[in-house]
Write a structure and sequence with these properties.
It holds the Pfam family Thioredoxin_2. This protein has 22 helices and 4 strands. The chain has 412 residues and is of the alpha+beta class. Among the domains are: 117 residues, Glutaredoxin, CATH 3.40.30; 89 residues, Serine Threonine Protein Phosphatase 5, Tetratricopeptide repeat (Alpha Horseshoe), CATH 1.25.40. A hairpin with a 5-residue loop joins strand 3 and strand 4. It is globular and about 65 Å long.
Length: 412
């Protein structure tokens, strides 16, 4: 199936009430919102969004309407929305907030969307979250705003006052990550690592810290993992040292070439990395990156050949999601029968790994249709629809089915 569509609807007004889920204030100005928070002794949750931001729309249409999300936010917060951009369709109420939106952007350094700002009952900024997420994870992030020991702004003040305190630095690193404050996160992580011995560093509690800090090539954490792979593997349940480091190195090398608008020679990259990092094997990471790169550059024969090579060598480790993503890339952008046939085989393999998954059935149906097997495509799409419970997805799948029946294109 095509990737989950995030842009489902535009938010019709700045501050609005919903029939369920999170109840956002409507018709109040900022001072009135603060007064209400003080009266009810609640924190203030502010969703800073734009009309063009896909994740903003996803949060508005999919996460905030959920009952469990509403139960948490309505009990703990006075909730508000502020539209940070300006459009010709803005209502008078949205326009009345233009000056306040500009002030929020300046005073609270709102630069990415969505940004969620959390204030205490007196209107003091105590926490921020940058980026959306699924319901349970987002609730967990917002829960941190209620505790001074995990509040981003509170921790930042403590960290700046006592930057060598490892306990504060560790909490700061976690809060900075949620706030997308990479500079503070890197600084805090460095402080934590510098205070620990090698044996103290390699514990299960420090795995996430190591991985986050090691995302910068040749950093202290990067070299710690590189020089102690066995110790890292002994405490890491998510990823092995070589897999993590090799993906990081290959990804950075490829991105550097792309940004410089240079051709990517994977063999040359592997050779160069082998000379600089002889203990890190980049073969698998390189082979995994190649089809993604060819999909990005729309070199579909290259995508087909490299992904088939990857499947042949690492097929048991490949996921249904990876197979589906590559198959969909071919379907969306390529009309070469050989490539489409290869993609159909990948799609079939994804269904062997996860039988009767509607998402993968949808991809297979679309590929069958584009290959000219209309009858089987329709049957497969009908099966996908019968397995769906989400009304929005079902509507999208039904629309695709109708196009198939009418003989219309289901691709762009």
């Amino acid at each position: 199936m095509k990737k989950l569509i995030l842009m489902l609807l535009l938010i019709p007004s700045l501050l609005f009430a919903q029939s369920e889920g999170v109840k956002f204030e409507h018709g109040l100005n900022w001072n009135q919102i603060k007064e209400k928070a003080a009266k009810e002794n609640k924190f203030i949750f502010v969703d800073c969004f734009t009309t063009w931001c896909g994740p903003c729309k996803y949060m508005a249409s999919t996460i905030f309407p959920q009952a469990k999300v509403g139960d948490f936010f309505n009990a703990k917060f006075i909730n508000a929305k502020i539209q940070m951009d300006k459009t010709k369709d803005d209502s008078e109420e949205i326009k009345s907030w233009y000056a306040e939106a500009d002030r929020f952007a300046k005073d609270y350094t709102v630069r990415a969307y969505p940004t969620f700002l959390i204030f205490d009952s007196k209107g003091n900024l105590v926490h921020r979250i940058v980026g959306g997420g699924e319901a349970d994870a987002f609730i967990a992030k917002a829960q941190k705003a209620l505790d001074p020991n995990t509040q981003y702004e509170t921790l930042l003040a403590k960290f700046n006052a006592d930057p060598q305190n490892a306990t504060i630095a560790k909490a700061m690193a976690a809060a900075a990550k949620d706030a997308y404050d990479k500079e503070t996160q890197a600084k805090a992580e460095g402080i934590v690592l510098s205070t620990l011995s090698t044996d103290q560093i390699f514990t299960k509690d420090n795995v996430e810290l190591l991985l986050s800090s090691a995302s910068i090539k040749d950093s202290k954490a990067f070299n710690l993992i590189k020089d102690n792979p066995a110790k890292f593997d002994a405490v890491s349940e998510k990823v092995k040292a070589n897999d993590f480091l090799s993906k990081l190195l290959i990804g950075e090398a490829v991105n550097t070439k792309i940004q410089a608008k240079e051709a990517v020679d994977f063999a040359a990259i592997e050779k160069e990395l082998a000379q600089k990092y002889p203990t890190i094997n980049t073969e698998k990471a390189s082979l995994e990156m190649q089809p993604r790169y060819f999909a990005y550059t729309k070199n579909f024969p290259g995508l087909r050949d490299s992904f088939n090579k990857y499947i042949a060598k690492y097929g048991s480790a490949i996921t249904a999601g990876q197979l589906n993503d590559m198959a969909w890339s071919i379907f969306e952008g390529c009309d070469d029968p050989a490539c489409l046939k290869a993609a159909a085989e990948w799609s079939k393999l994804s269904l062997e790994k996860e039988k009767d998954a509607p998402m993968y059935l949808d991809t297979f149906a679309n590929l069958l249709y584009r290959l000219g097997n209309k009858e089987q495509a329709i049957k497969t799409q009908e099966k996908a629809i019968s397995l769906l419970t989400d009304a929005t997805q079902k509507e999208q799948y039904v629309a695709t089915l109708q196009k198939m029946k009418k003989g219309e294109k289901t691709w762009q």
